[in-house]
C-alpha cells in the first residue's frame, strides 16, 4: 500500500526527532513541525520531508502547516501529538505562567491537532492519532502537579475521542513513556525540583528509557492493520519504579 502522510509535532528533539528518523527510514512522507525548524533541518532527513514552523498552541499556525503538508502529500493518515513541556515545581511556589504553558502545550496543543485532522479522517474512515502522554498521565509524582494534571488530561481526552470516532474506523492511540533522556528537563527553572528529579533518576542507575524504543513502539502501533487499535502503551525503563 502507498505510504501516507505522517505529521509529527515537536520533531526538533527527543522522541519527536527519533520518530521522524524511524518513519523516514521506512519511506513515509513526513510533515515535521516545531518552533525550532533549524533543529529539524539539522536531522538531514532525505526524501519526502516537509518542515514547517508551528506552535501547537496556535491553531491557525498549525492549520496552515498541515494544509501545506496535505497539499503536497495528500491527507494526514497519522498525526503524532508529541510536542510537550514539563516544568517542575510545587504548587505553592511555581509560577502560574508555567502551569499555563504546560496546559496550553500539553492539552490545548493536542486538542488543536486532533480537531484539524479528524474531519478528513472520519470522512475517509481511515486515519490514526497517537497522543504522547506519560506515566504521569495515570500516576502522581511530587513537584509535577500541573504536568500530571495535563497528562491525566491527555489520557482522558484521548479515550473520549477514541469512543467518538471508533465507529468511523479512526484510531486514537496513547503512549505513556517513563523517564527518558531528552531536552525535556532543560526548561525546568526550579533547581530544587530538578535536583530531586535527578536523584530519583539515579534509582534507575542511569538506565532511563532510550527514546529510540519509544519511536519503534509508535511505528509498531501504527503499522498494525487499521482494524486493530493498540489503545494504550505504557513503556518505561525496566528499573523505573
Ligand atoms: P523534548 O523537550 O526533547 O521535546 C519536546 C518537543 O516539543 C520539542 O521538539 C519542542 O520543539 C516541542 N514543543 C514544545 N512546546 C511546543 C509548542 N508550543 N509548539 C510546538 N512544539 C513545541 O522532550 P521529549 O521528547 O521528552 O518530549 C516529547 C513528549 O514526550 C512530550 O509530550 C513529553 O511530555 C512526553 N514525555 C517525555 C518523557 C521524558 O522523560 N522525556 C516521559 C514521558 C512523556 P520546539 O521547542 O522546537 O518547538
Automatic annotation (TrEMBL):
<dbReference type="GO" id="GO:0016491">
    <property type="term" value="F:oxidoreductase activity"/>
</dbReference>
<protein>
    <submittedName>
        <fullName>SDR family oxidoreductase</fullName>
        <ecNumber>1.-.-.-</ecNumber>
    </submittedName>
</protein>
<dbReference type="Pfam" id="PF00106">
    <property type="entry name" value="adh_short"/>
</dbReference>
<keyword id="KW-0560">Oxidoreductase</keyword>
<dbReference type="InterPro" id="IPR002347">
    <property type="entry name" value="SDR_fam"/>
</dbReference>
<dbReference type="InterPro" id="IPR036291">
    <property type="entry name" value="NAD(P)-bd_dom_sf"/>
</dbReference>
<comment type="similarity">
    <text>Belongs to the short-chain dehydrogenases/reductases (SDR) family.</text>
</comment>
<dbReference type="InterPro" id="IPR020904">
    <property type="entry name" value="Sc_DH/Rdtase_CS"/>
</dbReference>
